[in-house]
Design brief:
about 80 residues; alpha+beta; 2 strands
């Protein structure tokens, strides 16, 4: 994906701080026109939340496309559609 990207932005944050992780996600999403959310159906570790990022993006007017590989399923806590 890096090779296909028109722009790459690195954001410093403390990966052990859930609030910092969410803030980094929001910072990146604020500069996006589209979010491709790829989920494998695995449960959240609590440090990240695909559903939270998708909700933030949609509420911010970012176009969202949720993708799941064949055989992946959603858990009750991670529904994004």
């Amino acid at each position: 994906m890096l090779l296909l990207s028109e722009q790459v932005r690195l954001t410093e944050y403390d990966p052990s701080d859930r609030t910092a992780c969410a803030g980094a996600d929001e910072c990146l999403l604020n500069s996006c026109a589209r979010l491709f959310a790829v989920g494998d159906g695995s449960p959240s570790t609590g440090q990240e939340s695909m559903a939270r990022s998708v909700a933030f993006a949609r509420n911010s007017g970012v176009d969202v496309e949720a993708l799941r590989p064949d055989g992946a399923s959603r858990t009750a806590l991670e529904k994004v559609s």
